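Q: What residues go here?
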């Protein structure tokens, strides 16, 4: 199934006011395991960040990570780009409403977007699995980053990251152009693109796989059947979220020998 329609429905509901939008971001941060991993890595980076960093959120989607960075880095200059015009217009309007003037938005195709070296950090969450020309995009990141700058990626692994486990099985998220990266594959591609050092680790290990099904897959499948399930979702999460919270915490703190997600850092 495609879950963009579900995401749009949720977005439309929470876009009724800036307060509801912030509630939406808060809920995403609680429910999405990748947010736990990305927040941990961003907090590590922020400890030694430049006084006035320049940041590119490459494929910002709903803008939840742009908001997280903008909230914690008031002196940063952040550009968030996405290929979808409606996402840019939506996020731009919200950030204007909350007076986050250090954030700007731009429609951009990452296979074409390239600047002079200027970014201290490039964030790329749930993007590379949608782009066939991945090495080209990595080269564009290298060209646009300052020396010593860091690229932070979250993407599915080839261990079932798109919920594909057998030959012939299709992805739960049909928009993916690949079923996930092998660690060595993405490391080699980043080094080939011009990065000097790469670190990759698995996310969505044993605890995370269960948490993802409880907090994301099953609710989305239910909503795909009927939007009436919106009514029972609060009761569903009231029962299941305490377990998901513990599992998310464990997954983001433990080291995994395998997992359906990857967190990758690369330095120029």
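A:
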């Amino acid at each position: 199934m495609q879950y963009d329609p579900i995401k749009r429905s949720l977005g439309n509901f929470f876009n009724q006011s800036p307060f509801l939008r912030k509630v939406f971001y808060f809920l995403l941060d609680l429910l999405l395991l990748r947010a736990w991993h990305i927040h941990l890595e961003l907090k590590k980076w922020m400890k030694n960040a430049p006084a006035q960093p320049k940041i590119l959120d490459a494929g910002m989607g709903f803008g939840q990570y742009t908001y997280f960075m903008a909230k914690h880095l008031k002196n940063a200059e952040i550009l968030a780009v996405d290929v979808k015009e409606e996402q840019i217009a939506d996020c731009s309007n919200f950030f204007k409403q909350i007076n986050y003037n250090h954030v700007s938005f731009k429609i951009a195709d990452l296979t074409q977007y390239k600047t002079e070296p200027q970014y201290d950090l490039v964030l790329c969450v749930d993007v590379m699995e949608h782009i066939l020309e991945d090495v080209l995009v990595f080269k564009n990141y290298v060209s646009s980053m300052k020396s010593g700058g860091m690229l932070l990626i979250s993407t599915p692994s080839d261990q079932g990251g798109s919920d594909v486990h057998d030959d012939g099985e299709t992805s739960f998220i049909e928009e993916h152009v690949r079923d996930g990266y092998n660690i060595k594959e993405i490391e080699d591609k980043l080094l080939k693109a011009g990065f000097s050092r790469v670190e990759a680790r698995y996310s969505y290990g044993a605890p995370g796989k269960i948490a993802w099904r409880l907090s994301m897959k099953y609710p989305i499948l239910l909503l795909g059947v009927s939007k009436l399930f919106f009514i029972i979702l609060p009761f569903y999460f009231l029962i299941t979220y305490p377990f998901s919270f513990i599992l998310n915490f464990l997954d983001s703190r433990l080291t995994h020998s395998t997992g359906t997600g990857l967190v990758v850092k690369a330095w120029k």
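A: Context that may help when evaluating the design: Residues 4-203+261-267 form a domain with the Rossmann fold fold (CATH 3.40.50.150). The chain has one domain: 4-203+261-267.
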